[in-house]
Amino acid sequence: MPAQRMGVDAKTFQTFASLFLIGRERKGPLRWDEFEKAMSDVGFVCKAGKSGASVDFIPVSAPVSGTFSCHKPHSKRKGRPMLDKKGKKLLSKALYEVYEWDRDTFVLRE
After folding, report:
1. Distance of alpha carbon 27 from alpha carbon 22, whole angstroms
2. What's the distance, CA 18 to chain centroid?
3. Tell me: the pLDDT tens digits for 35-87?
4. With contact defined as beta carbons under 8 Å apart, do 100 and 2 qualify?
5. Looking at CB atoms within 10 Å, which of 26, 38, 77, 82 has the fewest?
6. Cα–Cα dist 109/100, whole Å
7. CA-CA distance, 52 to 103, in Å (whole number)?
8. Gyration radius (Cα) of the chain, Å
């Protein structure tokens, strides 16, 4: 059964568009803090996981059930952690496996 469609604002749509390779938004790396913000915008709380780089996303008002856990990327340089092309692919695949989210899940709210 496909995931329920979610209407999101422009910034959140840009983030998920980058992650799920929608349109022009797919180019370049994605900042981790933008991903955390987008998950918050669709109804998740972000908490540090049990291991060092582990992060748990807990749905509080999202139309899904179950906690999603993943590893926060490490910064290769000083600055903010980034998801590169490979990291985005792994993360989008994991979100599909847990919530069945894909490129059709997120739509721009008018």
Report:
1. 10
2. 9
3. 999 999 999 999 987 877 899 999 999 889 999 999 998 776 667 889 998 99
4. yes
5. 77
6. 20
7. 30
8. 13
**Cα atoms found within 13 Å of the Cα of residue 74, Cβ hemisphere only:** 3
CA distances from 47 to 39, 55, 56, 89, 97 (A): 12, 6, 5, 22, 21
Cβ atoms of 20 and 77 closer than 8 Å: no
CB atoms within 10 A of CB 17: 20
pLDDT (tens digit per residue) in 86-95: 999 999 999 9
CA distance 27 to 70: 22
pTM for the model stands at 0.90
> Would you call 68 helix, strand, or coil by DSSP?
strand
What DSSP character marks residue 108?
A: E
DSSP state of 25: G
